[in-house]
Amino acid sequence: MNDSFEENRELLSKCFAGDRQSAENFIRQFSSLVYRSVQYTLMAKQATFNKQDLEDLHHSVFLKLFEHRFAKLKQYKGKNGCSLASWIRIITVRTVLDHLRNKGYDAMGWQNRRISLDQLPELRFDEFEIEDRLQTTELNRLLQVCFDRLSPRDRLIIKLHFYQDFPLSEVAEIMQLSANNTYTLKHRAVQRLKAMVASALAENF
Questions:
Q1: Phi/psi zone of residue 104: left (φ > 0), alpha (ψ -120 to 50 degrees), beta?
Q2: Which end of the chain has the lower number of beta carbons within 10 A, N or C?
Q3: Does domain 114-204 fall into CATH 1.20.140.160?
Q4: CA 205, CA 199: separation in Å to the nearest integer?
């Protein structure tokens, strides 16, 4: 067993013994992991959520880990190379999925939301004089078609930033990217979308 495993086992043992400081250290050590896992699970299920939802689920995970005298954590044995972080990630995913099921959440709800020009203020088509060519509803339909052709990463950045109003600094954290890289990827995603719409307009007019 490596030092990390032994250190984690020691930390858990102290938590199980009721050591308050160790419990606080446990939360500090795995807080970011739980937060990110909550975010990724919600996004994987294309669920709509806000910051309060993330905070609530974050707290729910730790409550589940600590309830009944750490029953869930006591199930962790570290078998087959499973790390404590992996075990906590599994508990987190299950907690989020249970939450979505209990809420009767429509997992396709977010995916089926249609985008519009109003939601993408950085998208500008003035040079194509589209106002004279298309009604807004038709343009939005075309925009949606092109949006669906973007890569999953491009769609995710646009959804998080424009749909969910996450600042780019938080988008970077969610996607585990640097702030500068996220800004560049967001800019390129919008430009790719714009180019696709421009190409579609050229084909149709």
A1: left
A2: N
A3: yes
A4: 10
Phi-psi region of 18 (alpha: psi -120 to 50; beta: other; left: phi over 0): left
Range 130-141 average pLDDT:
61
To the question of pTM greater than 0.70 for the whole model, the response is: no
Mean pLDDT of 176-198: 87
CB 162 within 8 A of CB 189: no
Can you give the residue ranges of every domain in the chain? 3-102, 114-204
Two tokens at 98? 């249970």
Tell which residue, 163, 125, 122, 165, has the closest CA to residue 142. Answer: 125
Cβ neighbour number for residue 193 with a 10 Å cutoff = 22
We find that the CATH architecture of domain 3-102 is: Orthogonal Bundle (1.10)
